[in-house]
Amino acid sequence: MTLRIFKLLLIVFCIPSSLPVQANDPLPRTNFEQTQSLIKKFAEKIYIELQKFPDSPYSIKCTNHPISQYIEGILISELSTRNLRFYYSESDTISKLELLVNQFRIEYAKIPDGKNKLKRTIAFSVSALIKRKSLPINPFKFDTLATDTIDVESIGYIERDGSPFKGELPPEKETFFDRYIEPIVVIVSSALVVLLFFSVRSK
Prior knowledge:
Elements lengths: L1 H17 L12 H20 L7 E5 L5 H13 L5 E2 L7 E16 L6 E15 L6 E14 L3 H4 L17 H27 L1
Parallel strand pairs: 1-2, 1-3
Antiparallel strand pairs: 3-4, 4-5
Helix pairs in contact: 2-3
């Protein structure tokens, strides 16, 4: 009886070790989440610049760009907690923070020998003007990018927030048919059309 129990226990403990272990890879950050992180870095830069005039309220305006509303919203959210006051409306009585998006690009690139893997790059560049009454304009520029590696299968997930957070996919690899057969078919078809045209005219 004791030997039988020992064998059963041995089987029970051996089964888990023989099963394949599947590592659950964490989901990558979405394009929106990555972009949000870059804008927060920009907010840190803005905060340093605005500390030169900490007691001044500001109106904020970002030029017409697909991510303008996200930039304005995140900046106000991040900086309002640091005793900086912001207003969406413009006024001649308060200072102005004007933003111009120079570049916002999401793209994917193939990785050599990386099966089903892509390199994701999100580039973000913005210029800012701080305008204060009776004081010189203070311009500065912020450039940054984020890169990481993602699975091809995760494209749908990381782009779930839709436009403008969809990237540019790399071109499909050219097949033998695309490179050789298709041009031949086009040339032969054109030649047949010309031949038929002159055949009809000769009759």
